[in-house]
């Protein structure tokens, strides 16, 4: 059985009703191997946690990015609540070690399965919400997602770089930036390298977890290169004559 005191210590929350936390950790396979036990799985809590998390993230993005349109906000939200992100955060809490799993699920590596981990995290969020209330749940989510939210802020700031670079290049060279993206992902996480060129001349490169993020970083580097090209002797000055 899970050490609920250890789980609470890891989460940084003392539950009024530890049974809610325990319920959040019960996988359906555990129930299936115990017919007639009266136990239920964490699936209903997962349903609620998905909604609680979605509301918090939507409100946070709405307030933090007043200039972002609906499409940008939707993209940011999808990055934050996707399975890969939830799994990574669940691993950081070592949730897999505390799951109640059936024997078959345990033997098939269930403690490390992204689906089990991401769903358990949503169930834990729901348990915190029911036990501690809205404000405490919001603080828990904010603390848990702090690093991810910071990455979104960085992504939002560099995303504007592509538009700015295009304006500069069109005005100065009457051309359009061309991006080349290479997938360099490994088994752990996605990764992309991007290069941006104008009239075949290299301007910058960048790396990111998505193609758009890599292109945005490349664009920012290109802007810096073009600003430096205003100095005499810069090889990029030759672009003006192409």
UniProtKB/TrEMBL annotation:
SUPFAM superfamilies: dsRNA-binding domain-like, RNase III domain-like. It is found in: Cytoplasm. It catalyses: Endonucleolytic cleavage to 5'-phosphomonoester. Mg(2+) binds at residues 46, 122. Its cofactor is Mg(2+). InterPro entries: dsRBD_dom, RNase_III, RNase_III_dom, RNase_III_sf. The keyword DNA damage does not apply. The active site is at residues 50, 122. It is an enzyme of class 3 (hydrolase). GO terms for molecular function: double-stranded RNA binding; metal ion binding; ribonuclease III activity; rRNA binding. Pfam families: dsrm, Ribonucleas_3_3. Residues 160-228 form the DRBM domain. One of its GO terms (biological process) is regulation of gene expression. Keywords: Cytoplasm, Endonuclease, Hydrolase, Magnesium, Metal-binding, mRNA processing, Nuclease, RNA-binding, rRNA processing, rRNA-binding, tRNA processing. Its main location: cytoplasm. Its EC number is 3.1.26.3. GO terms for cellular component: cytoplasm. Residues 4-133 form the RNase III domain. Belongs to the ribonuclease III family. Homodimer. HAMAP family: RNase_III. Digests double-stranded RNA. Involved in the processing of primary rRNA transcript to yield the immediate precursors to the large and small rRNAs (23S and 16S). Processes some mRNAs, and tRNAs when they are encoded in the rRNA operon. Processes pre-crRNA and tracrRNA of type II CRISPR loci if present in the organism. This is Ribonuclease 3. It comes from Dehalogenimonas alkenigignens. The gene is rnc.
């Amino acid at each position: 059985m899970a050490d609920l005191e250890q789980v609470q210590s890891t989460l940084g929350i003392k539950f009024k009703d530890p049974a809610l936390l325990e319920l959040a950790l019960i996988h359906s396979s555990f129930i299936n191997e115990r017919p007639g036990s009266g136990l239920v799985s964490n699936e209903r809590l997962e349903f609620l946690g998905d909604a609680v998390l979605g509301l918090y993230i939507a409100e946070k993005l709405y307030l933090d990015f007043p200039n972002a349109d609906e499409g940008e906000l939707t993209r940011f939200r999808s990055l934050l609540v996707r399975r890969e992100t939830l799994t990574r955060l669940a691993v950081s809490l070592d949730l897999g070690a505390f799951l109640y799993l059936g024997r078959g699920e345990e033997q098939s590596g269930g403690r490390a399965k992204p689906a089990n981990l991401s769903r358990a995290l949503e169930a834990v969020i729901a348990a915190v919400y029911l036990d501690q209330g809205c404000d405490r749940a919001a603080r828990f989510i904010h603390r848990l997602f702090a690093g991810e939210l910071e990455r979104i802020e960085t992504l939002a700031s560099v995303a504007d770089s592509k538009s700015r670079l295009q304006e500069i290049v069109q005005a100065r060279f009457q051309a359009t930036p061309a991006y080349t993206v290479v997938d360099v992902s490994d088994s752990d996480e996605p990764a992309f390298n991007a290069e941006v060129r104008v009239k075949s001349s290299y301007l910058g490169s960048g790396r990111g977890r998505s193609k758009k993020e890599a292109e945005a970083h490349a664009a920012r580097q290109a802007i810096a290169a073009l600003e430096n090209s205003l100095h005499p002797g810069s090889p990029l000055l030759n672009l003006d004559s192409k």
